[in-house]
Design brief:
Alpha-Beta Plaits, about 25% helix, binds iron/sulfur cluster, alpha+beta
Length: about 110
């Protein structure tokens, strides 16, 4: 579930507002968007993937809020971590070619 917008990193681009399929965010004139409907979040990670500033944290818990605390050092280290893991973003290499999960399908036949 979406947990945090890091307002220090956010550049108010509102890409996350457009990327979210369930309209969780609300644009705020002249400032970062706010998480207006957290419980509509489907934990799809689209917002985190498309945020160019790694300013979002989606916890991998779908059915409740993780109550992540923005100031907590461990949580801040996770900001944009899913995006980083798949290799999206400046200076990163896509990890798609390392995904061998298709092997499971070929072995199932
Ligand atoms: S994880 Fe998906 S559903 Fe949740 S806020 Fe981000 S884009 Fe919206
Ligand atoms: S996509 Fe990232 S930088 Fe852009 S408004 Fe959303 S949180 Fe801020």
């Amino acid at each position: 579930m979406i947990e945090i917008i890091d307002t220090a990193r956010c550049t108010d681009c509102n890409i996350c507002v457009s990327a979210c399929p369930t309209n969780v965010f609300e644009a705020t004139p002249g400032g970062p968007p706010r998480i207006a409907r957290q419980h509509d979040c489907q934990t799809c990670f689209m917002c985190e993937l498309y945020c160019p500033e790694d300013a979002l944290y989606v916890a991998p818990i779908a059915d409740r809020s993780a109550n992540a605390v923005e100031r907590d050092a461990a949580t801040r280290a996770l900001m944009g971590s899913y995006r980083s893991a798949i290799g999206w973003g400046r200076g990163r290499q896509s990890t798609a070619s390392l995904d061998a999960s298709f092997e499971l399908l070929t072995r199932a036949h």
